[in-house]
């Protein structure tokens, strides 16, 4: 299944014990690709121990904008040839070199040559024919959308000699500490925070930190907060409308409708664990306790890798903890509807 990482040059260094964790899940090959002095550089190793991967990372990835891949074999032999990245086109191609990395298992398989990987077959049978005539289509939204749908829940990262890097199905991964990680299952995904550009880990239970969420400080998000007025939420639905907002059936209808929207969004964001384990009733309770905007922020914290999917599931499923958490929250939404919150079963069984 593998782990694919892209990183900025400004990303803080990863501690050795986290690199050891990455390797422990994906021991069957490791590679790095980046551009230096106008040339695409590729370095691979089939490690025999975690130290081999750590050396590769320290020598070629630390402090550099690049893509990193660790392989967990599903198709093909374990060798340098099947270690990512893969060459799509070499330096002698009319448009220059293009290499790629892949996370996932392709339905197209490797039937023609079982010693080769599914990635190798996909490049030969699909990518080269599609890109041979005009490479520029790879960097168009239309082609990326088409390719993303074709490969399903797989992720590709491409890099050419000019330094253009593009990731297909990027929304299926998570962002953390100046990096994009292709998944949260091929490593331990410890609970972590990004503080002033540096990595910081915490074991503080999520349920105790909800009151500390300051939505106004989350960068590059629509402006919203725990306002007590759901019409101010950036996710407010015109189909629900302010006329349903209030107590009794109108409010319950609003909450359950928003719970359906939230559940669908969890699936669309690629949070498959949370999507399977949560349902509209649990989410309705969470909306009622936390307020809609805090819940949106929790979902996006899971998507961006600040909390794990299981942390999200456990938090939203623990109704006793939900009720206790609001005691310390400055939450006008909760205060305004405290009578309704006290009878939350009404929402759960709506």
Per-chain topology:
Layout: E1 3-7, H1 16-25, E2 30-36, E3 39-45, H2 50-60, E4 66-70, E5 86-89, E6 98-103, H3 118-131, H4 141-151, E7 155-160, E8 165-168, E9 174-176, E10 179-181, E11 192-195, E12 198-201, H5 206-209, H6 248-268, H7 272-277, H8 280-290, H9 292-303, H10 309-317, H11 319-325, H12 332-336, H13 338-342, H14 345-348
Antiparallel strand pairs: 1-4, 1-10, 2-3, 2-4, 5-6, 6-7, 7-8, 9-10, 11-12
Task: Please explain how this structure is put together.
By secondary structure, the chain is an alpha+beta fold. The chain has 2 domains: 3-181, Glutamine Phosphoribosylpyrophosphate, subunit 1, domain 1, CATH 3.60.20.10; 204-348, no CATH class. It is 37% helix and 17% strand. The chain contains 14 helices and 12 strands. The strands form 3 sheets. It has a 6-stranded antiparallel sheet with strand order 3-2-4-1-10-9, covered by helices on one side. The protein has a 4-stranded antiparallel sheet with strand order 5-6-7-8. A two-stranded antiparallel ribbon has the order 11-12. Helix 1 packs across helix 2, helix 8 (280-290) packs across helix 9 (292-303) and helix 8 (280-290) runs parallel beside helix 11 (319-325). The radius of gyration is 23 Å and the shape is globular. This is Glutamine amidotransferase type-2 domain-containing protein. It comes from Pelistega indica.
CATH second-level architecture of the largest domain: 4-Layer Sandwich
Topology, number of strands: 12
Would you tell me the overall average pLDDT? 74
CATH superfamily of the largest domain: Aminohydrolase, N-terminal nucleophile (Ntn) domain
Q: What's the helical proportion of residues?
A: 25-40%
Largest β sheet strand count, sense and barrel closure: 6 strands, antiparallel
Q: Tell me what portion of residues adopts beta-strand conformation.
A: 15-25%
Number of helices: 14
CATH topology of the largest domain: Glutamine Phosphoribosylpyrophosphate, subunit 1, domain 1
Q: What string, H for helix and E for strand, traces the elements in order?
A: EHEEHEEEHHEEEEEEHHHHHHHHHH
Integer tally of domains: 2
Which strands sit side by side, in order, in the main sheet?
3-2-4-1-10-9
What's the gyration radius in Å?
A: 23 Å
Q: Spans with pLDDT under 50 lasting ≥5 residues?
A: 190-249, 325-350
CATH class of the largest domain: Alpha Beta
Shape verdict: globular
Give the CA-CA distance, first to last residue: 40 Å
Which structural class do you get from the secondary structure elements? Answer: alpha+beta
